Amino acid sequence: MEPHNTSAQRPETRSASTGVGRQTGTIDANAYMDRLQADNAAGRCFICELADEQTTREHETVAYRDEHCVVFFPPWPRLYAYCLLAPRRHATEVVSDFTEDDYLALQLRIHRLGRVLTEITPTERLYVFSFGSMQGVAHVHWHIAPLPPGTPFREQQFAAVDKPEYLVIAKAEVDELAERVGAGMAALAAPERDRWSGSNTGAKPSLIP
């Protein structure tokens, strides 16, 4: 199943970096869910494929990997710079499949990713949540979604992410976003003394190249 693009344009009321004014497409939700269930029944896990550096997938774009997690952009984002973070090992229980230390290591990376994303794009509210299904995408993952400033109240929260319309973003731009996210995550993973080069003046350096 492939979603189809539409030519509809959303009004240019805010910065294009928030996704407003971009071309949108519509995903065939029924076909998408059928494919997820078929992959699940066949024992295929696309997140495990993304976690493996030797595997290449056509649609998703990996931004960052370390010993604990993989960060990637979905092919059909509902919000600009919307991405997902998942443990590299296959886990299906969002709490009980992890030791406290492993869980805290993942949450640390979610915190870092949130900091990076909110520096990359204007954000009124950063959404962080874990969805999934034992009948679909069973591999534990978190959604990190920056809500653009000025989004009408009725278009916020679940309405912002649970809709068939997605932003059409050119591959070159997604690749650039992924590079910036990866660089920001790496900067935050560096030792504190290497990150805060402006500590004598109290200046806080940018996380994003």
Automatic annotation (TrEMBL):
Motif (Histidine triad motif) spans which residues? 139-143
Region feature Disordered, mapped onto this chain? 1-24
Q: Name one GO molecular function term.
A: catalytic activity
Identify the residues that the record assigns to the HIT domain, covering every copy.
46-154
Matching Pfam families = HIT
One of its GO biological process terms is: nucleotide metabolic process
Highest taxon in the source lineage? Bacteria
Which InterPro entries did the record assign?
A: Histidine_triad_HIT, HIT-like, HIT-like_sf
Q: What is the protein name stated in its UniProt record?
A: HIT family protein
